Amino acid sequence: MAPHPTPDAEPDDSPEAYVGLEAHQAERLAHERGWSAVRSLPPGTVITMEYRVGRLNFEVENGRVRRCWKG
C-alpha cells in the first residue's frame, strides 16, 4: 500500500479572532496569516462536511463575520 500523504500544517491561528471583523478585512487577514483557502458563506448555507486542511470558513451576515471555523 502507498503511504498516506502528510497534510500541510494549518496556521497557528484562532478562528475566534475573526468574529466581528468586516468580511473583506477578515479574508485579507486570513490569507496574510497563511490560510490557503477562505470561504465566506451567508447564514444557513448548506455545505458539505468534508474537512479541508488549510481552509477557513466564515459565516457572514451584514458584511461582518458572525462565525468562523476551520476546514
Q: What does it look like?
A:
There is one protein chain. With 71 residues, the protein is α+β, with helices and mostly antiparallel strands. The chain has one domain (15-70): 2-Layer Sandwich (Trypsin Inhibitor V, Chain A), CATH 3.30.10.10. 14% of the residues lie in helices and 27% in strands. The chain contains one helix and three strands, in the order H-E-E-E. The chain has one helix at residues 23-32; strands spanning 37-41, 55-61, 64-70. It has a three-stranded mixed beta sheet, covered by helices on one side. It is globular and about 50 Å long. The termini are far apart. The mean pLDDT is 92.
Q: Which key phrases capture this entry?
A:
single chain; 71 residues; alpha+beta; Trypsin Inhibitor V, Chain A; 1 helix; 14% helix; globular
